Amino acid sequence: MAEQDCIFCKIIQHDIPSEMVYEDEWVAAFKDLAPVAPVHILIVPKKHLSTLNDATESDTLLLGKIQLAASKIAERQGVKENGYRLIHNCGKDAGQEVMHVHYHLLGGKTLGWSPD
Ligand code: AMP
């Protein structure tokens, strides 16, 4: 399931350090190295998928687990009540840098909206 040379697979396997904030059978979540908000967590499926375009019907449950994990993580991070944003960058035009599906959970301040 893990892909050689994938940095997020290595984090999931605890082969390289991260500030892990949540883990279950399906999903791991850790602090972004370069946070853009007071709370900036990356939520990743443990299964390696390079982009959302690689997901198939067989990943339906996994994709749902990510959303449910986001809500739990938001609660743990203290942003559930005030609100948070979940962002997925898919591919070049969206600025995806790491080719392992990940969702940015942002919160802890009033977020602007500028997809420029
Ligand atoms: P994206 O542009 O959506 O692909 O976002 C990739 C994110 O991964 C960026 O926000 C980076 O700061 C973050 N990142 C890259 N390497 C690491 C790492 N080793 N630990 C935590 N976050 C990372």
Mind explaining what this structure looks like?
This protein has 116 residues and is of the alpha+beta class. It is built from two helices and five strands, in the order αβββαββ. It has a five-stranded antiparallel beta sheet with strand order 1-2-3-5-4, with helices on one face. β1 (20-23) and β2 form a beta hairpin. The model has no long low-confidence stretch (mean pLDDT 96). The structure holds adenosine monophosphate (AMP). Adenosine monophosphate (AMP) binds at residues 7, 18, 30, 32-34, 42, 89, 95-98.
Q: DSSP helix count?
A: 2
Q: Write down the CATH class.
A: Alpha Beta
Describe the largest sheet: 5 strands, antiparallel
**Average pLDDT number:** 96
N-to-C terminal Cα separation, in Å?
A: 35 Å
**Topology-level CATH name:** HIT family, subunit A
Task: Kindly report the name of the CATH homologous superfamily.
Answer: HIT-like
**Which class do the helix and strand fractions yield?**
alpha+beta
Bound molecules: adenosine monophosphate
> Which regions have little confidence, pLDDT < 50, spanning 5+ residues?
none
Number of strands: 5
Portion of residues within helices: 10-25%
**What Rg do the Cα atoms give?**
14 Å
The spatial strand order of the largest sheet comes to 1-2-3-5-4
Quaternary structure type: single chain
Principal-axes shape call: globular
Share of residues in strands: 15-25%
